[in-house]
Design a protein that fits this description.
The structure is a homodimer. With about 220 residues, chain A is α/β, with parallel strands linked by helices. Chain A has helices at about 25-30, 35-55, 60-75, 80-90, 100-110, 120-130, 155-165, 175-185, 215-220, and strands at about 5-10, 15-20, 95, 110-115, 135-140, 170-175, 190-195, 210. In chain A, strand 6, helix 8 (about 175-185) and strand 7 form a beta-alpha-beta unit.
């Protein structure tokens, strides 16, 4: 059962946008190593958000993502000039939305839709504009205001404050299970987009709904 | 340059003890899948320590490690009875010290030596006794007292309080780079055992020394 939801809040990376859409650009630089680069890049990026948050050593997502790329090319022993690194970082402003994203957002109208992301505003704002998702997404909320990353509870409070709605009237959508669990622990009604068929993370707060793609969302919400 | 250190504090899992020594037991249950099990088991175990700490949803390391094994066998579609799960968890009380660990600890005498670990006392105490490392390790300190995991700064304070020494007189040894960085950010003099030749994690607090194994430690300390 889905309660009446007066806003939908989406995670950005991996949920609306495919972070692995950088694979092609990576392959153009390092033949056939694009997938390996993309995987380690994403893994380090995430680990460091958690570790830095616990350490109280926040740096913004742009800086962290650039450092994670540097780490990755060093670990994989791939050459990477400053120009190449900055060009690949720029790809984060041009990530592809998942194929079903636009139709799903269109079908969800007229519910208020927002993004709540680890991304810093200097990465997120161009991304939402470049992809045209600003047609549906009216509020782009970044954790950068608090200088701490998901799944810290007060990060989710940012959406409550911006949308001026209680948590139980907000639907939260993420393909990152730990993010879905963090949002559930906070008090949102949560939809986990389980794109890979993974088990639920044992974080003590399982998501309310599990779906395979964003396409299943509108039917579930409208009832 | 290594300053005068009046105590050495070791991480347990991956530093003194080889967590992947469970591979053989896993292989006995799931032929040729031991390495895949061990890797995902360890990865989920670590991720959840960070995520649960940020969420304020601590469960102890025994419970978390058992849940991570359950996740792993489900993800890899391997059958796992309750008996099997508990038997493999029991392996955490009988992990192998790395081959060079005993000689290194012996050579470090008579410096005070302690363990500071994510492990709960119900896992750590039997491990240290079963392996005989209690011959050298006089203090076994668990984050469980604070119900939060590394690299949260106040976890490292536990060693300061127990050993009654200022951070700068304590040497901290870990093979987990993020743990080494967390300890450095806190104020210890830090030795990272880089067993795999990985780059340094970009966490804003690089370790003071990088070594390939514990065997290099005594020469560095004694001078």
């Amino acid at each position: 059962m889905v309660p009446k939801l007066n806003a939908m809040v989406f995670d950005a990376y991996g949920t609306l946008y495919d972070v692995h859409s950088v694979i092609a650009q990576c392959n153009a630089v390092w033949t056939e190593r694009g997938q390996a680069v993309s995987q380690l890049w994403r893994a380090k990026q995430l680990e460091w958000t958690w570790q830095r948050s616990l350490m109280g050593r926040y740096v913004d997502f742009r800086e962290l993502t650039l450092a994670a790329l540097r780490y990755t090319t060093e670990a994989l022993k791939l050459p990477c000039s400053d120009d190449t690194a900055l060009r690949l970082l720029k790809a984060y402003e041009h990530l592809e939305p998942f194929p079903e994203a636009r139709d799903a957002l269109e079908a969800l109208r007229p519910v208020t839709m927002a993004i709540l992301s680890n991304g810093s505003p200097n990465l997120l704002e161009p991304l939402v504009t470049n992809s045209g998702l600003d047609r549906w997404i009216t509020d782009v909320i970044s954790v950068d205001a608090l200088r701490v990353y998901k799944p810290t509870p007060r990060v989710y409070q940012l959406a409550v404050d911006r949308l001026e709605l209680p948590p139980e009237e907000i639907g939260f959508v993420s393909s990152n299970c730990w993010d879905a669990c963090g949002a559930k622990a906070f008090g949102f009604h949560v939809f986990w987009i389980n794109r890979t068929g993974a088990p639920v993370d044992a974080l003590g707060a399982p998501p309310d709904h599990i779906m395979h793609s964003l396409a299943e969302l509108p039917r579930l919400i409208s009832r």
